[in-house]
Amino acid sequence: MEAWAAAHNRTLPSFDPRDAVIQLRCAEDTLLVHELYGPTAFSMYDKHLPQDVRRVFAAYAHHGHNSPKVVQPCERIVAALKKYIKKIRPHADLMVAGGDQWDDWARMVYAPVVFRDSTSSWGLWSTLAGTGKGFAPPIFATDKDAMTKLHFATPHVDESYTFVPDAKVLYPAVAKAAGLGCCTDPEAARAEGRTCCSEQQVDAIIAWLESN
Length: 212
Prior knowledge:
The structure is a single chain. The protein is 35% helix and 14% strand. By secondary structure, the chain is α/β, with parallel strands linked by helices. Helix 3 packs parallel to helix 9 (199-211) and helix 4 (101-110) crosses helix 5 (121-128). The radius of gyration is 17 Å and the shape is globular. The N and C termini lie far apart (37 Å).
């Protein structure tokens, strides 16, 4: 990382020990559409976000993977998470940091505390390479029915990296079981000038994230 940054005239991130980074892989192609993706329930941060945290940076797909697209349901989820973090850590603020994919990757590698979202491979490798403490939801097990029957695994890495056993993710199969959903073809919805997720559907998604 240091050699690449020097060769490409990039700056490595600088953190205070009380900073944290949360990956938010919410995007039009993932929100209740892709079987491997979904927003992580906010309760994962109750226990594992340090009590003395002050700044929480969102590694958010809006400006990384999908820039410059703005997906309003994801914007609302980010806003809800910001409010939730302020409630559980009154001295902390969640902010979406600018930059490109390199900036987010570097933040996730060098953050004192970092959280991976759902089963993002980009999030997996950057957080496993991290120099701080990493947390992630359980991964899908290796049996052929894992994604349909929601079988999960929590492999042991080392003391610096934890797959949180009780962390919940709103995968499409989980959403279906909970009676939640949006349209199944966001590209078609956009082409037709309609919204994939209604305001009421997003309200229900946020309520699930806040209560699970």
